[in-house]
Amino acid sequence: MKNDQRLAESFRDPSGFLFKRDGTLFRQVNRTYADNFNYLETSKLSKALSDAGLLIPHKIVEVEPADPDQAYKVLQPELLDFVSYPYEWSFSQWKDAALTTLDIQRIAFEHGMVLKDASAYNIQFHQGRPILIDTLSFEISKEGEPWIAYRQFCQHFLAPLALMSYSDIRLGQLLRVFIDGIPLDLASRLLPRRTWFNLNILSHLHVHALSQRHFANREISKTSVKRSVSSNAMFGLVDSLRRCVLKLSWNPSGTEWMDYYEDSSSYSEESMQHKEKLVQAFLIQVQPASVWDIGANTGRFSRLSSQQSIPTVAFDIDHGAVELNYLESKRNEETKLLPLVMDFTNPSSFIGWNLTERMSILGRGPVDMVLALALVHHLAISNNVPLGSLAHFFRGISQWLVIEFVPKEDRQVQRLLRFREDIFSSYTVEQFEETFAAYFRIHTRERIHQSQRMLYLMEALPFNDS
Amino acid sequence: MSNQFLSTFADSVAAFSTSLFTPEAYLDPGSGSYILQILIAMFVGGLFVLRTSWGKISAFFRRRFSQNKDSTSDEE
After folding, report:
1. Closest among A224, A323, A153 to B35, alpha carbons compared
2. Nearest-CA neighbor of A233 among B24, B50, B65, B6?
3. Do the Cβ atoms of A24 and A32 come closer than 8 Å?
4. Which ipTM score applies to this complex?
5. Does residue A155 or residue A3 have the better pLDDT?
6. How many domains does chain B have?
7. What does the pLDDT read at residue A411?
8. Confidence at residue A221, expressed as pLDDT on a 0 to 100 scale
């Protein structure tokens, strides 16, 4: 009996499923999908998409399937550094994922196949670029058949992008509630009136929503539909969606944190350089296999790690900062940095069927090293999180911790306390060290030049000691 | 006023799409998406053909035009 673990993400798909055996990820292709799989391989579509960097490469392997009764083949896909979800993406990440999906549909159609799913969850960021990870998303196209994934594309990509562009950038978070994309009637209601005068948005979202409502309770036979979709019409549809997505934009100016480094009250240049030098030295000393930078802003410190080829996730609460970080990483063709939007006071939780379909952020850990730079005062003072709870949290997700303590005398903390009563009598450097020492061994403590801030390198104690 | 216009417009689109099929049996909850897609695809498919053909047509005339110009200058 093999020690196989079936992954919950692919539980709906009759074509196959993902499983882990002894830490290695495999994808079983079921016999019901054999014709489509053979076509995918023989039509060269699989190779064309892999060569273009649009589909995760896989190899067919001779290992015992997890479910031999149904099995046709077993694939071993290339591994991702980190799995992210659309409600964690910045605007341009979502837009690039949408364009990737449309490019794949166009190329698939040219090879005689179509995407049967246009789920945003099937796109992941791999080596800095969006890529389709579900090899079993294709089926042989039937002449005249409309694109089966059109509605899903509108719900997973077009509706959130239009809402983020025209209404409010935070509306992408709706996917945390509506796991299968934003219902089009809701999107239509939330979009401003001027979008009714945009022909693409009008047709793909507003009229689409009305059409869904109009036909919701009518009985229609598929065979009674008199028209079909010609190949030119299919290319035209994909082209129309692509033009619509391309025109959507969002300018991150004026968001909370994007000017943080430029704000002279935070740091002097010498402080910044000293802090960089210290973080760099810690990274060289520990050589972590993976890093999460929590509160990464536009990724200045995350890059110290990713530039050493360490897979690094740069989390920030601010959409603007993450957007700028992503655009820079894209411009520089960085392959080891993944910027993501995350509010660690309410991070991504387990959601979906049986609460296993999408992983929480903790479920995607632990990580080798966490960078928590200029973060603790926001959690401890703005959000009233006790220091003990913070130390326990960091111990749960990381082996190594690089953490900065910002004392009360610091101007940033004074700002936070300006309009509220100071109830944080235990927020002192002594209390901080004593609390964290219960969970971590403090290897190094350094004062950052020209500031009263302290930087620590800590290593997690075994759980039974903490 | 504009709302009334849009509502009438949407009703017209729905009425046109109804004319594309005959009601019979249950399809699926996405039938509205299915029907609308056929409608949009018909329209944008035409535009797509025009757009992709336009490059070829304009290149043809440009070529013809430059040939005529060359032969005229030869005669001169």
Report:
1. A224
2. B50
3. no
4. 0.77
5. A155
6. 1
7. 86
8. 65
Strands (E), A327-434: 337-341, 367-372, 398-405
Residue A332 has pLDDT above 70, yes or no: yes
Query: Residue B24 has what pLDDT?
Result: 42
pLDDT at A265: 55
Higher-confidence position of B47 and A447: A447
Bridge-partner residues for A315, per DSSP?
Answer: A294, A340
* Residue B31 pLDDT: 84
Give the pLDDT of residue A395: 97
CATH number attached to the domain at A269-465: 3.40.50.150
Cα A282 to Cα B25: distance, rounded to the nearest angstrom: 67
Task: For chain B, list residues whose CB is within 8 angstroms of any CB belonging to chain A.
Answer: 2, 6, 10, 13-14, 17-18, 20-27, 29-38, 40-49, 51
A239:B14 CB<8 A: no
Which residue of chain A comes nearest to B22, CA vs CA?
A224
Window A:142-201, CB contacts with B under 8 Å: 146-147, 150-151, 154, 193, 196
Q: Which run of H or of E encompasses A103?
A: helix A91-110
Identify the residue whose tokens are 């837009």.
A95
The runs of H, that is alpha helices, within chain B are 2-18, 31-75
Tell me the one-letter amino acid at A360.
S
- For residue B16, what are the domain limits? 2-75
The interaxial angle of helices A91-110 and A231-247, nearest 10 deg, is: 170
Average pLDDT (A292-317) is: 97
pLDDT beneath 70: ranges in chain B: 1-29, 68-76
Contact assessment for residue A14 and residue A83, using Cβ atoms and an 8 Å cutoff? no
CA atoms lying within 13 Å on the CB side of residue A173: 15
pLDDT for position A2: 66
Distances (CA, A) of A270 to A67, A185, A263, A406: 60, 53, 14, 17
* H or E stretch covering A147: none
Q: Kindly write down the DSSP assignment for every residue of A183-197, as one continuous string.
A: -HHHHHHHS-GGGGG
pLDDT band (50, 70, 90) for residue A182: very high
Which residues is A337 bridged to in the sheet?
A312
Compute the average pLDDT of residues A255-283. 77
A126, A80 contact by CB (below 8 A): yes
Dihedral (CA of A129, A82, A120, A134) sign: positive
For residue B75, what are the CA distances in angstroms to A370, B61, B68, B70, B72?
A: 79, 21, 11, 9, 5
Nearest neighbour of B34 by CB, restricted to A146, A216, A239: A146
Q: Which residues, including other chains, have CB under 8 Å from residue B27's CB and lie 6 or more apart? A: A219, A220, A221, A222, B34
User: Tell me, what's the pLDDT at B23?
Assistant: 44
> What's the CA gap between A225 and A265, in Å, rounded?
66
What single-letter amino acid sits at A109?
Answer: F
